[in-house]
Amino acid sequence: MKNFTFFFLFFFFITSCNSVKEIQSSSKPITHELWNTLVKTHVSEAGIVDYEGFISDKAKLQNYLDLLSSAHPNKTNWSREERLAYWLNAYNAFTVKLIVDKYPVASIKNVKRGIPFVNTVWDIKFIKIEGTKYDLNNIEHGIIRPEFEDPRIHFAANCAAISCPRLRNEAYTADKLDKQLDEQARYFLSNKGKNLITSEEVKLSKILKWYSGDFKAYGGVRKFINDYGPQPVSDAIDLEYLDYLWPLNNQDINYYEAKE
């Protein structure tokens, strides 16, 4: 119990360290057409990423990252949907940037190993937006999760691993965001390589375990599965969780194939 308590307090502390102060900005919403072109060209519908293709389009990718860096979302000029679409696209695009700069690499974890929330790849402060520096943890845990409180975001932010939700081959945009998030959640839960949901057993991605607290306001993980999964889950069935596979998402491998 002491070890569990220590871990919980440590996790709470390091997560709180990623909180982000509101930045003063007068920027206006940007277009995500460049990112839309890139992912339509180099990402399959299933989310398989052609990183060599991104490398060949490195200048266009950098142009999009520069555009992101020039405009910090703010609540004065940006709608909620515009802000969330921006941060999801930013998280995904900067993640691709990390892989492109180190490619070939077998896993995003190989870019930089370390202590979670302290000095891993997700703690590299390589993102600069209107003068403010961020790492990927800042964006996900300091902005997206606490500000928007929508569990569907866990199926839209991509961590470049095969167990992650697919990298969508379409940019998130304010006018289509709700539909896009619904589609991402349904696609992920129906993917039998990442979740197995039947009338007899339920084996889920650890994403739903790690972030179970984010589903409480919705009614819990089970209710979310019943609404977005391929079929309802009986209360009598225990929820089990699969190991998370970290090989790069440039290949079509599912959990069961990898375990054979």
What do these coordinates show?
- This protein has ten helices and five strands; from the N terminus they run αααααββααββααβα.
- It has 260 residues and is mainly alpha-helical.
- The model is unreliable at 1-17 (pLDDT under 50).
- Helix 4 (58-70) packs antiparallel against helix 5 (80-102) and helix 5 (80-102) packs antiparallel against helix 6.
- Helix content is 43%, strand content 5%.
- Strands 3-4-5 form a three-stranded mixed sheet.
- 36% of the residues are buried.
- The chain starts with a helix and ends with a helix.
- Strand 3 (196-197) and strand 4 (202-204) form a beta hairpin.
- The protein has a domain at 26-192.
Features:
single chain, 260 residues, mainly alpha, 3-stranded mixed sheet, two-stranded antiparallel ribbon, 5 strands, disordered N terminus
Radius of gyration using CA atoms only: 18 Å
Overall mean confidence score, pLDDT: 91
What percent of the residues sit in helical stretches (DSSP H or I)?
A: 40-55%
Number of strand segments: 5
Largest sheet: 3 strands, mixed
State the end-to-end CA separation: 35 Å
Short description:
With 260 residues, the chain is mainly alpha-helical. Helix content is 43%, strand content 5%.
Chart the SSEs and their pairings.
Elements: H1 2-16, H2 33-42, H3 51-56, H4 58-70, H5 80-102, E1 127-129, E2 132-134, H6 136-148, H7 177-190, E3 196-197, E4 202-204, H8 207-210, H9 221-228, E5 239-241, H10 255-259
Helix pairs in contact: 4-5, 5-6
